[in-house]
Design brief:
The complex is a heterodimer of chains A (260) and B (344). Chain A is mainly α. Chain A has helices at 2-16, 33-37, 41-75, 80-88, 95-106, 111-118, 132-157, 160-168, 173-184, 186-201, 205-209, 218-226, 232-259, and strands spanning 19-20, 26-27. In chain A, strand 1 (19-20) and strand 2 (26-27) form a beta hairpin. Chain B is built from 14 helices and ten strands. The chains are: A mainly alpha (260), B alpha/beta (344).
């Protein structure tokens, strides 16, 4: 098991401190230049944008996922297994195929624009595809199940008698949600948030397909280094730096867990 | 308990993804997507009783990266003309034994002995083409003439460029009157400025996947290879192809046999099969890409053969320029500029 995880990582580490080969691959000498190169404002801007998109995705996933998980946990009744099944079902199909499906929904002659034009609500098609909004929709859609499941687990475990006690003591539903339900389901919010944030940091298919290649995230930068740029060491260094950030995020998450 | 050596051998095999196969009896091919007729593989298998393992790639850089990483186990791959030299120097491909290709003489003389592979020692021309742009005559309301038409504010949001640094920088450089293979810093910075000026007008950077949107009329002008463009023109007669007056790129893709090939005999039979007039004609008909095979060309419908966008008379190619190999320093500079364009 350890070999599966560790060997590829060691290779990436080794690549990241070598020099680039003439037509791809790696060569001697050993160097730290690949890491220093990342400090260039050009790459830091891409990193910043990636963080911003990942944070937005996480916030939206939580905003949509929490009410959904809450609804299933409280009002799902005997439909709970079926509803959870529906949440997980998209994972049965390739992410690539599902992202392509969004192109057919969002494009000028796609389903959404066609319906809106038929209804007479708009005259010309809305530019729904190939912009930041489309990328965000794709990311939220793709990662939503990752938030719903941990949220559901922690909302389901919530001791309902505490909510009754809050009501008995005169707390209105909104107050009891903010001061009892949400604080007690924090572990689920953290777990769901971390899962989405980390996944979104590495996204590269979605910005490519739904963003029309007009903006790049860190994932695309790494991919480019291994293909068109033929600079494997820099690609390896960028992916390790991204991983360092992810590990730091996980550490932060563990601290919160232990503190809770 | 496995020994350290066994463990290393096993993990090396796992890392390089090499497959153990019966030698002979099959051939493993890695080619561009949509670059063959629907029945080519099946007909070859029927005729030779060899099994073909056929896989496709979207970018030749992806193909090279996989081979350099030691993966694939392919026998025959199809690099573009700029990649043949680097692959030869990395000793990734074998020398071609001309005696074993009975159909080699079918190729047009002008595609033999090319500058990127003198003496045809390592590669066999497969298909060729050029990158101008396809546009919607009706929507645009005029005949397009040059790259400048793709910088027209009136068609904002209806234009796409290829998602490929060599193609986009090439078009910008040509628009400015420079060589599309330039590695001159000043010229490339000017090309970058052109690309940044064009970016707000672009719907997206798209490769062959732009075709359905051209056919549907969502996209009015798209930088595209002529074969792909004609696949779209066949579905929508409002579309037309433009050879930009400022100049444009020519390329050729070739078949090569990899050094790692375990079935070189089958590889020769596959390549010789592709060179057969009837097979070459069927591929040219279904992909629309121009064939360099003179005998295959004779078998095409006169209308297709006479199409000046696919089989241009020499006079139409005077402003054309072949893509050439870019030096490592040039490549670094171009990559940085491409990243700047994409991140803007």
């Amino acid at each position: 098991m350890g070999a599966f995880f560790l060997l590829p990582l060691l290779i990436v580490l080794a690549y990241s401190i070598l020099s680039k080969g003439d037509y791809g691959g790696v060569a001697l000498p050993v160097t730290g230049a690949n890491y220093i190169r990342f400090l260039d404002p050009l790459y830091l801007r891409i990193l910043g944008r990636t963080f911003w998109m990942a944070a937005l995705t996480t916030a939206l996933c939580l905003a949509i996922g929490y009410p959904l998980a809450y609804f299933i946990a409280f009002y799902g009744g005997r439909w709970k297994p079926a509803l959870l099944f529906l949440v997980v079902m998209p994972f049965w199909t390739s992410f690539l195929v599902r992202t392509y499906a969004w192109i057919f929904l969002l494009r000028d002659t796609g389903l959404i624009n066609t319906i809106l034009i038929r209804l007479g609500w708009i005259r010309a098609p809305l530019p729904l595809l190939y912009n930041e909004g489309a990328v965000l929709v794709g990311l939220v859609y793709g990662f939503l199940p990752l938030t719903v499941l941990p949220l559901y687990a922690s909302i389901e475990r919530l001791d309902r008698t505490l909510l009754e006690a809050a009501a008995d003591l005169g707390a209105r539903p909104a107050v009891s949600l903010a001061r009892v339900t949400v604080p007690l389901t924090m572990p689920g919010i953290y777990a769901g948030g971390v899962l989405v944030f980390i996944s979104a940091l590495g996204a590269y298919i979605t910005p490519d397909l739904l963003g029309g290649g007009k903006s790049i995230l860190i994932g695309n930068l790494v991919q480019n280094q291994f293909t068109t740029a033929r600079d494997w060491p820099f690609g390896a260094a960028v992916s390790l730096l991204l991983m360092a950030v992810v590990v730091a995020a996980l550490q932060l998450y563990r601290r919160r867990e232990e503190a809770a | 308990m496995i020994s350290r050596r066994q463990f290393l051998a096993a993990s090396a095999a796992a890392l390089t993804g090499c497959r153990r196969r019966r030698a002979g009896g099959e051939v493993s091919v890695y080619c561009w997507s949509d670059y063959i007729a629907a029945d080519t593989v099946a007909a070859f298998e029927r005729e030779t009783s060899l099994r073909v393992n056929y896989e496709t790639f979207e970018s030749q850089e992806e193909m090279l990266a996989k081979i350099l990483a030691g993966g694939g186990g392919w026998d025959v791959v199809f690099p573009g003309n700029t990649l043949v030299g680097p692959m030869v120097r990395r000793a990734l491909i074998r020398e071609i034994d001309h005696q074993r290709l009975s159909n080699l003489a079918n190729l047009e003389a002008r595609f033999l002995d090319p500058p990127w592979d003198r003496g045809d020692r390592h590669s066999v021309p497969y298909m060729w083409g050029l990158s101008g742009f396809v546009y919607n005559r009706k929507a645009l309301g005029r005949a397009a003439t040059g790259w400048a038409d793709l910088w027209d504010r009136a068609v904002k949001g209806k234009i796409t460029m290829l998602d490929d640094p060599a193609e986009v920088l090439g078009a910008c450089l040509k628009k400015l009157g420079h060589s599309l293979n330039s590695i001159d810093e000043r010229e490339l910075q000017a090309a970058r400025a052109e690309a940044l000026r064009q970016k707000p007008l672009l719907r997206a950077y798209l490769n062959a996947e732009v075709k359905p949107q051209l056919i549907a009329g969502d996209v009015w002008a798209a930088q595209l290879w002529n074969g792909d463009a004609y696949q779209a023109i066949a579905e929508n007669r409002d579309l037309a192809y433009c050879f930009p007056s400022e100049g444009f790129a020519l390329y050729a893709d070739s078949a090569v046999i990899l050094t790692q090939s375990r079935n070189p005999d089958s590889a020769y039979r596959w390549i010789d099969y592709l060179l057969r007039p009837d097979v070459g004609a069927s591929i040219a008909r279904s992909t629309m890409f121009p064939t360099p095979n003179a005998r295959a060309l004779e078998l095409l419908d006169p209308a297709l053969r006479a199409n000046p966008d696919l089989y241009p008379p020499p006079g139409r190619l005077t402003s054309a320029e072949w893509f050439t190999e870019i030096s490592a320093e040039g490549q670094s500079l171009r990559d940085r500029i491409w990243t700047e364009i994409k991140a803007a």
